[in-house]
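Hypothesis: this fold can be encoded by more than one sequence.
Test: take the structure tokens below, design a sequence, compare later.
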């Protein structure tokens, strides 16, 4: 049974999310503070964290910073803030996605199910090998010039989506549909944020890219051909 950590200081929100998630077969752990959330991730290693941005001690962005120092767990930010900058800053710190309050518990549950379904689809022998880059789908590992690279769950899935079709140009909308896996109603610029983070992790210079190319006005493409 996969475990979901729900981090929110409002007991009623935790109760509602617990009910929907448990009805879908998930085990749910709750945390009301940022300090407790960091402790739970470190010691329980949940599959997904639903992290409220507004918490009474540490805010959600600081919690995210601390989590990312030791874990690549899938993190879904839950925010009541409507400013786009808050969402993009959160994604830049390593969040995989965000959802804005008020939200539908069914939508939250669907997103959790989608990311966990994606993480189980690779076969043991699935590996994409390119000059200087290897993507191991079964182990969810990436190496650049034989050096391991740490990616978040969503960054890895984004790289795989591009690498499976070298040279093909994907629009932001197409990448949202392939990687996020649900009808996305937010700002398509979240793709740009994740591409920027992905390039940084892969040491791929956006000015002279060797892995992920930008097609101005359209989207992105994977540059290397297979070995």
């Amino acid at each position: 049974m996969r475990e979901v950590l729900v981090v929110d200081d409002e007991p009623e929100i935790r109760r509602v999310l617990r009910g929907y998630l448990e009805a879908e077969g998930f085990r749910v752990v709750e945390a009301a503070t940022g300090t407790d959330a960091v402790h739970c991730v470190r010691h329980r290693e949940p599959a997904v964290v639903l992290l409220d941005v507004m918490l009474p001690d540490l805010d959600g962005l600081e919690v995210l910073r601390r989590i990312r120092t030791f874990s690549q767990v899938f993190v879904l930010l839950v925010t009541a803030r409507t400013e786009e900058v808050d969402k993009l800053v959160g994604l830049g710190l390593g969040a995989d996605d965000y959802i804005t309050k008020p939200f539908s518990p069914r939508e939250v549950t669907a997103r959790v199910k989608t990311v966990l379904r994606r993480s189980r689809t690779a076969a043991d022998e699935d590996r994409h090998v390119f000059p200087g880059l290897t993507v191991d789908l079964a182990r969810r590992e990436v190496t650049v010039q034989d050096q391991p690279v740490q990616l978040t769950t969503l960054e890895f899935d984004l790289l795989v989506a591009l690498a499976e079709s070298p040279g093909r140009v994907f629009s932001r909308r197409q990448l949202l549909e392939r990687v996020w896996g649900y009808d996305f109603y937010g700002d398509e610029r979240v793709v740009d944020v994740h591409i920027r983070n992905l390039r940084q992790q892969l040491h791929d210079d956006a000015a002279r890219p060797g892995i992920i190319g930008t097609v101005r006005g359209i989207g992105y493409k994977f540059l290397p051909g297979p070995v």
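Residues 121-125 have pLDDT under 50 and may be disordered. The two ends are 39 Å apart (CA to CA).
Hypothesis status: open.
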